[in-house]
Specification:
Largest sheet: none
Number of strands: 0
Order of helices and strands: HHHHHHHHHHHH
Number of helices: 12
Membrane topology: Multi-pass membrane protein
GO molecular function: beta-carotene 15,15'-dioxygenase activity; carotenoid dioxygenase activity; iron ion binding; monooxygenase activity
Organism: Cecembia lonarensis (strain CCUG 58316 / KCTC 22772 / LW9)
Helix content: over 70%
Number of domains: 1
Distance between the termini: 20 Å
Structural class: mainly alpha
Bound molecules: retinal
EC number: 1.13.11.63
Keywords: Cell membrane, Dioxygenase, Iron, Membrane, Metal-binding, Monooxygenase, Oxidoreductase, Transmembrane, Transmembrane helix
Length: 290
């Protein structure tokens, strides 16, 4: 694990512990935490997709890239409008795969790679959702009533944990002990945390920061002398576009919406920009390994 990743995970762990000890129920802390992680690492980690496969992309290439990205967004939006439940299921499955994949950056699994990513992601998403099932259900009630699923939490959490252990052993994964210890400790903490706090800590420090570190490593040869400064500069345009676009749509829907409806709309917007991101990130990470 790279240093920055270790530092990030330590910070994430500290924030979780400090929250549980001193800030439980403090909504200001929760929203400030959510917004700051989202704006500094969450959104920016997906803002370099256009450079991942081709760091020297031409203007024509960039236009083609943007059109493809927008086409995926539009198709997925149509699915959300006409088939919201399948759209939600697809979002959860691709997120689980994508999150699981970031646990194995720099490690090339030999056996059942995609299943291992998926099951690892299912474990982490499950502890986050079932750890605060009531709030997950409240947010999702605009799409589907998930209350009949409340008793499935532990079988899914324990099942996905055991399955990922089996998959790691099959892969002769050298770090499987550390990996499983991390699953137990972080899984336990995420389960205790409120939905959005658990989600943003995991998303920021276990997914976005390791992904961004990998992006930096691969792009640093093209960043000239002030590498970090140029890296941040290149993150800016698409970060600003995503934040601005989401903010505008949320502001339009703000009057007359309940808070949980806005949270759901926010995650639907996240899903729309995540779909092409997951696709490009997968191409980037897997072609790097081959
Ligand atoms: C937290 C949360 C949800 C799921 C969010 C997910 C799955 C986000 C995935 C983001 C990704 C994949 C970002 C890309 O890098 C629900 C179930 C919609 C509603 C309840 C709160």
């Amino acid at each position: 694990m790279r240093n920055i990743e270790k530092i990030g995970k330590t910070i994430g762990l500290m924030i979780a512990i400090v929250y549980l000890l001193f800030f439980q129920g403090n909504q200001i802390f929760e929203w400030v935490l959510f917004a700051s992680i989202l704006l500094t690492i969450g959104i920016p980690h997906g803002a370099l997709d256009h450079l991942l496969l081709n760091p020297k992309i031409s203007n024509k290439g960039l236009v083609k890239f943007i059109l493809k990205y927008l086409a995926i967004i539009v198709v997925y939006l149509v699915v959300w409008i006409f088939l919201p439940v399948p759209a939600l299921l697809a979002f959860l499955l691709m997120s689980a795969y994508h999150f699981g994949q970031s646990h194995f950056i720099g490690n090339d699994l030999q056996s059942k790679k995609k299943t291992t990513y998926l099951i690892t992601g299912v474990f982490y998403l499950s502890v986050i959702f079932w750890g605060d099932f009531d709030n997950t259900a409240i947010i999702l009630k605009g799409i589907v009533d998930i209350s009949p699923l409340s008793g499935f939490g532990w079988p899914i959490i324990i099942g996905s944990f055991i399955l990922s252990m089996i998959l790691l052993v099959k892969n002769s994964y050298a770090d499987w002990r550390i990996f499983s210890l991390e699953m137990v400790i972080i899984g336990f903490l995420l389960y205790q945390l409120p939905l959005l706090v658990g989600f943003i800590i995991y998303f920021g420090f276990w997914h976005a920061l390791p992904s961004m570190t990998e992006e930096y490593q691969s792009l640093k040869w093209f960043l000239g002398r002030n590498k970090l400064k140029n890296f941040i500069k290149r993150l800016m345009p698409f970060t600003a576009a995503s934040v601005g676009g989401m903010w505008l749509i949320l502001a339009i829907f703000y009057p007359g919406s309940e808070p949980e409806e806005l949270v759901l709309l926010f995650f639907i917007l996240v899903s729309l920009i995540s779909a092409p991101h997951i696709w490009y990130m997968n191409l980037f990470l897997e072609t790097k390994k081959n």
